[in-house]
Amino acid sequence: MTLEHDQDTKWPGGRENSANVLNERRSLSDEMSDVEARKVLFARSRRGFLIGGAAALAGVFGWRWMPEETKVGFLQKVFRFNEKVTSAFYRPEHLAPEFPAVKVTRPARVNGMLGIENEVDLASWHLNIGGIPQHTGDLVLTMDDIRRLPKSEHITEFKCIEGWSTIVQWTGPKFSDLVAAFTPWRSPEEMPPFVSLATPDGGYFVGWDTASIMHPQTLLVYEMNGEVLTSKHGAPLRLASPTKYGIKQLKRIGRIDFTNERPQDYWANEGYDWYSGL
Amino acid sequence: MHWINFPLLAMMTWSGLLIYWANPVYSLRLFGREIFYFFPQGFYSFLGIPYRLAEGMQLHFFFMWLFGINGIVYVAYLAISGEWRGLLPTVGSFKRAFQVTLYELHISKKKPPQGKYNDAQRIVYTLVILMGAGSIVSGIAIYKPLQASFFTSLLGGYEWARWEHFWLMILFAAFFVVHVVQVVLAGWRNFQSMITGVEVIRSEGSGE
């Protein structure tokens, strides 16, 4: 009986195509007795199964027995690592494709009422902005201030983290126009690295990286699909941007803060990716 | 690299299902009639899938690295070692693969030529590698549809890319089932050789 590597010299490629471990072929292809061959094969099989089985068990039970905090901590680190890698590929010149008006999804899908469960009092609404240098206290803006900013518009695909998407026409000033009009900063690089946004009641809050919120397609929206923004879609002013999932596109903005600290984020606190960049 | 694929594909499929559950919209249709809906409620509750989207994304976006790296290493190994010669289909592979199919279905008694892989295996295993590449590309297309919009547009847009990514997963699952059945049919010795890298072949004249 011979112990050979699985090979077949009849097949066109010949020996060089076989999956053999070359340096082992010589020592093993010698004739050996049945008993000897069985012993070697048995040892090899046992070793293979033991190593494979141990690795599988270690994987499954290692994960099972790992404390919850270690697991969450590890996976959050993975999110952070992915954020570092993917944000390195971020380019503000990369724009989301735009669609013709006939493609707009009607009626617009409503999803999520966090932070906007109560009716909004449009007359008393105002926007508080914090974290602007040489500005004591908040800068307080009204809708008229927002409407005076240059108006932009795009029809893009809105993507929910759940996996569905709709096509929406968004109208309002670019977030970067707000920054240009009311702050001393002249480029995203001069700004603090993060922006925090929250509903007036603080019930819903999101954190953004400055690069994404300064993207030319990130808008402060007051009109949606050609009509004034409705309460369910975040009246009087909401954020819309193809750079992030819907969870980041806060409705009914009450506060904006420019900050050096990575802001708290409602869904990141629930285990979702803080960055959620598209 | 081959064996690592099993736990990696299992994890990618599992976490993918946790994600898919949040927007389960696909079904199998024939002549406009729905034949199978992905997936019935019982499937989800049996596996404990509902309301685990965040966990699914955490796992999916960790194991994607291992799956991608393993795939790249495997393809690089095929290219450098010359093993690709035994794997890629050759001229006439499709014709001979038909003979293999007939033989394995016991329709034909003529045994087709068998190298390291027979011609049906060459075609299927090469397709599986392409499916892996397709999963990675469609995955990137739905993971970063703005920054990698080139891939997204290439695949027909965001929703098509998600659909393609889903069906590649179904194809992988189908391949897995057939593959395991084939390995079982090929017998214990073949499986042992996959584990150990060697196979015992009786040499001429040696009696037991």
Unreliable runs of chain A = 1-28
Strand order of the largest sheet of chain B: 1-2
**Straight-line N-to-C gap of chain B:** 36 Å
What integer is the average pLDDT of chain A?
Answer: 85
**Gross morphology of chain A:** elongated
Determine Rg of chain B (CA atoms, Å): 20 Å
Provide the β-strand percentage band of chain A.
Answer: 15-25%
Q: Can you identify the CATH superfamily of the domain at 91-270 in chain A?
A: Oxidoreductase, molybdopterin-binding domain
Q: What's the quaternary structure here?
A: heterodimer
User: Total number of β-strand segments of chain B?
Assistant: 3
How many helices of chain A in DSSP terms? 6
Query: Could you please say which CATH topology of the domain at 91-270 in chain A applies here?
Result: Sulfite Oxidase, Chain A, domain 2
Report the major sheet of chain A.
5 strands, mixed
Distance between the termini of chain A: 61 Å
Whole-number count of domains of chain B? 2
Q: What string gives the helices and strands of chain B in order?
A: HEEHHHHHHHHE
Question: Any descriptors?
Answer:
heterodimer; A: 278 residues; alpha+beta; Sulfite Oxidase, Chain A, domain 2; 5-stranded mixed β-sheet; 4-stranded antiparallel β-sheet; 6 helices; 12 strands; elongated; B: 208 residues; mainly alpha; 2 domains; 67% helix; globular
Task: Please tell me about this protein's structure.
The complex is a heterodimer of chains A (278) and B (208). Chain A is of the alpha+beta class. Chain A has a domain at 91-270: Sulfite Oxidase, Chain A, domain 2. Chain A contains six helices and twelve strands. Chain A is elongated and about 95 Å long. Chain B has 208 residues and is mainly alpha-helical. Chain B has two domains: 1-60, no CATH class; 82-194, no CATH class. Helix content of chain B is 67%, strand content 6%. Chain B is built from nine helices and three strands; from the N terminus they run αββααααααααβ. In chain B, helix 3 crosses helix 6 and helix 6 runs antiparallel to helix 8 (158-186). The mean pLDDT of chain B is 84. Chains A and B meet through strand 1, helix 2 and helix 3 of A and helix 1, helix 3, helix 8, helix 9 and strand 3 of B.
